[in-house]
Amino acid sequence: MSRNLIPSNPMELLHKEVDRLFGGFFNDFSLPTLHGENGSLMPKINLNETDKEYRLEAEMPGIPSSDVQVTVENGVLTIKGEKKAEKEEKDRSYIRVERSYGSYQRSFVLPDNIDEAKISASGKDGVLTVLLPKKEGAARAAKKIEVKPA
Questions:
Q1: Which has the higher per-residue pLDDT, 29 or 69?
Q2: Could you tell me the domains of the chain?
């Protein structure tokens, strides 16, 4: 097996091995691969734009708002969170566990027209909402580019 094909997450490695052993029996229950470069989970996002702001919504399931960090540094917005195990049960013998615990992180390069001082964030029901207001008068006019035959 090539070194760069070995999963960095031990649970993902176990998942792949169980799938291999059972010949795809669990294929209907496969976990999506949402891992970033450092092995952290990457939350899925929705990004909307209006005339006044961008609205970013990130899935952060199982992470209370108090455990989510939103930072802006050098024009890069980063959202982080950590999902922690709630309790350990020693009386059970698990065949397969698909609950994920670990850190979530995703970063975005912000456009120049964002007013970084007015960025706000809130969380509810496992969804983080970040409002990115545009600077006053920063609307960019659309410009049509003529396509000439070669």
A1: 69
A2: 1-31 (no CATH), 36-88+97-133 (2.60.40.790)
